[in-house]
Write a structure and sequence with these properties.
Distance between the termini: 42 Å
Structural class: alpha/beta
Shape: globular
Strand order of the largest sheet: 1-9-6-2-5-3-4
Strand content: 15-25%
Largest sheet: 7 strands, mixed
Radius of gyration: 16 Å
Length: 218
């Protein structure tokens, strides 16, 4: 059986992704990114991290990661659905390794796969309110992964000064050309391996609060 990362990507998904990547990169040329970092993250992969970003800000995250952390090796979890196949093709064409899986399909396999990529020194990007929400509700899977692997979590808050909002469950954002994009990174959160259930929930709420500390782009 193929691993989630080895699932084939159809020519149709690759074609749609190519169009999407062209649009993302074209928009990216006009956007003005401003980084606010509370995390000691170097461009080099001296330590790897679990990056947490809300689902509705995914449009610009690959551009941000490659702009400010180009030398790092990154991988991103995408859904095993048809939409996830296109997302996997997009991130792959943007230089980020796709890991196919979700909470609803191949979820257990994806957790094992994520841990293996972390062990190989990759950063992992997760959308803890995806793939179906609720919006801005951090699922426990991210905290569980951090607890099991000992990998620090980097909360990311992305704010567009001007954007379009789609009529989707997450009100997906697309920044308008020439908009300023504020990127708040950190602080880094280390989840101990020996925490109890109450402490686990405190860490989950804590990371969720950090991701919304600069507003949830509403």
């Amino acid at each position: 059986m193929a691993r989630p990362t080895d699932l084939p990507i159809s020519w149709k998904a690759r074609t749609i992704a190519a169009i999407g990547v062209f649009i993302i990169q074209l928009f990216g040329l006009t956007l003005r990114f401003k980084l606010y970092s509370k995390a000691p993250i170097s461009a080099q992969a001296d330590t790897n991290y679990i990056w947490a970003v809300w689902h509705n800000c995914l449009f610009s995250f690959p551009l941000i990661y490659r702009k400010f952390f180009a030398a790092r090796r990154g991988a991103a979890l995408t859904s095993a659905s048809k939409d996830g196949e296109i997302a996997a093709a997009v991130v792959k064409q943007l230089g980020i390794a796709p890991i196919r899986g979700s909470n609803s399909r191949r979820g257990g396999q994806a957790l094992i796969e994520l841990a293996s990529w972390l062990n190989e020194g990759y950063d992992i990007a997760l959308t803890p309110d995806g793939p179906r929400g609720p919006r801005y509700q951090l699922s426990p899977g991210l905290i569980l992964l951090a607890k099991k692997t000992g990998t620090p979590v980097v909360p990311v808050a992305i704010r567009y000064h001007n954007c379009w909002k789609l009529k989707s469950w997450d009100q997906f954002r697309i920044p308008k050309p020439f908009s300023q994009v504020d990127v708040h990174v950190g602080p880094v959160v280390q989840v101990p391996a020996d925490i109890n259930d109450q402490q686990f929930e405190e860490f989950r709420l804590g990371v969720q609060e950090l991701m919304c500390a600069e507003g949830c782009n509403d």
